[in-house]
Amino acid sequence: MVRKPSTPHFYNNIVFRGRAPPLHVIQGCCGDVCSACSVLHQMSSQVEPEVLLEKMGRAGVITMNRPKVLNALTMNMIQQIYRQLKQWENDSETDIVIIRGAGDKAFCAGGDIRVITEAGKVGDPLAQEFFREEYILNNAIGTCRKPYIALIDGITMGGGVGVSVHGRFRVATEKTTFAMPETAIGLFPDVGGGYFLPRLRGKLGLFLAMTGFRLKGRDVQRAGIATHFVESKKIPDLEKELVDLKFPSAEDITKVLDTYQAKVRHQGSPHKPVYQYLFSVSKSCLLPQTLSKMSPTSLKITYKQQQAGASLSLQDVLVMEYRLTQACMKGCDFYEGVRAVLVDKDQNPVWNPSRLEEVSDQRVDQCFLSLGEKDLTL
Known about the structure:
Residues 60-269, 289-368 form the Enoyl-CoA hydratase/isomerase domain. By secondary structure, this protein is an alpha/beta fold. The chain has two domains: 1-47, no CATH class; 50-374, 2-enoyl-CoA Hydratase, Chain A, domain 1, CATH 3.90.226. 42% of the residues lie in helices and 13% in strands. The protein is built from 17 helices and twelve strands. The protein has a six-stranded mixed β-sheet, with helices on both faces. The protein has a four-stranded mixed β-sheet with strand order 6-8-10-11. The chain has a two-stranded antiparallel ribbon with strand order 1-2. Helix 2 packs parallel to helix 4, helix 4 (126-142) runs antiparallel to helix 15 (314-330) and helix 14 (296-309) crosses helix 17 (361-367). The longest helix is centred in the middle third of the chain and has 17 residues, at 126-142. The protein is globular.
């Protein structure tokens, strides 16, 4: 079995794994363990950190640890993951990095959108800082010199895609659900969506970007989003084998992943390529209905983003996408989309403009303009 992280005891940002903080750590100002300090200790030891950062053998293991909210990313999580990733990248005793989600439902369902929305409404700098820090992390993953392995065993959407898809290895399971559903909330498929989506086969990336269509299980690998497919029940054994590797090369990791993938039993006849299935007549007739629910402004922004991103580097795409986020923060569709989908959940957003033909090219072009000294720097 995989060495599961023991229950963390958290005190003053120090993690004491597997035991409570020693008495000298929780002493009061008088030097004694007073009743007030004991209460503080009991409270602090029950706090679960949002992200667990551990060394297991020669592997650095990141666990996004908010299972009750599907491991949604916060600013704190993004900053912690970035700092630790850079440290491990430069550590001669760390050979690989593994990222996973806590719980049995999600890898990561995205960023904490409600917090970002509230910040944007009142002009809180968090609306700028969150996207800036998130994209810096996405770039760090995409340029990491050490093998980065994302175990996307569950829901993987939005920001969760950003902390997985840019890594060298992405392992999907039958529990994986992938989607970039941002056009439904007045945004666009960000976190590098303008880079990896246009590079999928045919027009699959554009389809996923515009519709927010959900890919599940093996289709995530067939689409080219995951590099491997492994049965969920085999993930603990796979992780243990990866952790136990000594000085592994990327080729060594590939061999291990290929071995686990080969153990998956194939049932029935081979499926059609995923893009053939998605664009079958029965599916395509639903496209107008699906697109009619999306923000018209978001659809036009997304279309141009996908066209432009096809010929840009990941870094240039992230700079472009940061500009787009700031434009969306100044508009109204993002706030209305979040209200309709995530807050009131009436699924009835009132978009402004309400029709595609009312969204001018000039309006869209303005969203792509440089922010000058406020541009994202990578």
